[in-house]
């Protein structure tokens, strides 16, 4: 009975052109990936600054394993917190201006901990409509009440805040939205929260490293001090090219999470070798402004060419550029057609994006060359005409 039910759900996914399976990479070399013995220019990764393959990061990983061990061998409050974890926390606080930070095995876990632990039944969580699945799930599983406001719409947020005057309102938004690549006005959002005695919680998974001076992220890029946020999370698996995540906040918030966040307390600590790699990645990210400059050049080139070619792109000044197709079937067709000229560009379909807004989500990196972007636009335009 249960198996039949599962099979039926799988068949339904397939019939709706929504079935997904992982792509197996034989090799990852930054801008080029090898799949089934063929090389492709990769426009679907999150390695925005090209740090995942940087020789210094790789060396730090290898040296870290030899020096500190491959695994932490315990949960953080037992024996899983090593000196290198503390060093990483200290570096995060010095870099980003938080009083304290806490490490998590993934951004998904950090978001679960952030919303589920910090809110209670007296609170209302107000989430942007396009919030990442990890935030939505966390809000749904929390004891707080949960409402969503129209995407990046401050007046919709103000109305919600007005409506929930009685409760502790916790406003949750993202520095860079993962599927559209756009950003909220964080300074205005922080001000609005202040006026309503609400708390602002930020997911900066796609902003850290990419935006702001020394890659300090979305809040810094918009002149919002870390102290204006109730807390902020970001992960190490995107611009920093490794894996894992952290939450940064005041000492009180982090002390509380350290005691009560089940995703932290009951989970094996991050690998110390990984922490060593992240530390090197952060150092390079801070020192090497050329990576952000090159990424910006690539973003501007992509936008200029896409607009000239009349491609239906969303407004975004970040590494995430969405070409909206609409139908899942056509998005898949276009993605498949681009494989012939060796371009890897994945189709993103519901439920990851709203129904009717299937897209090709281009992610740019500092490693892309000018010719790669020209080639992408040429083949996108040619094949878009064939499917339209
Ligand atoms: C906005 C956002 N938040 C959180 C996550 C989860 O982070 P992680 O992949 O480290 O679990 C992701 C991406 O996967 C994301 O795009």
UniProtKB/TrEMBL annotation:
Record flagged with keyword Iron: no
Top-level taxon of the source organism: Bacteria
Domain annotation Aminotransferase class I/classII large: ranges: 38-379
GO molecular function, one term: 8-amino-7-oxononanoate synthase activity
Record keyword Transcription regulation present: no
Requisite cofactors: pyridoxal 5'-phosphate
UniProt keyword terms in alphabetical order: Pyridoxal phosphate, Transferase
GO biological process: biotin biosynthetic process
Gene3D superfamilies documented for this protein: Aspartate Aminotransferase, domain 1, Type I PLP-dependent aspartate aminotransferase-like (Major domain)
One Pfam short name: Aminotran_1_2
Recorded coiled-coil stretches: none
Name the UniProt record assigns to this protein: 8-amino-7-oxononanoate synthase
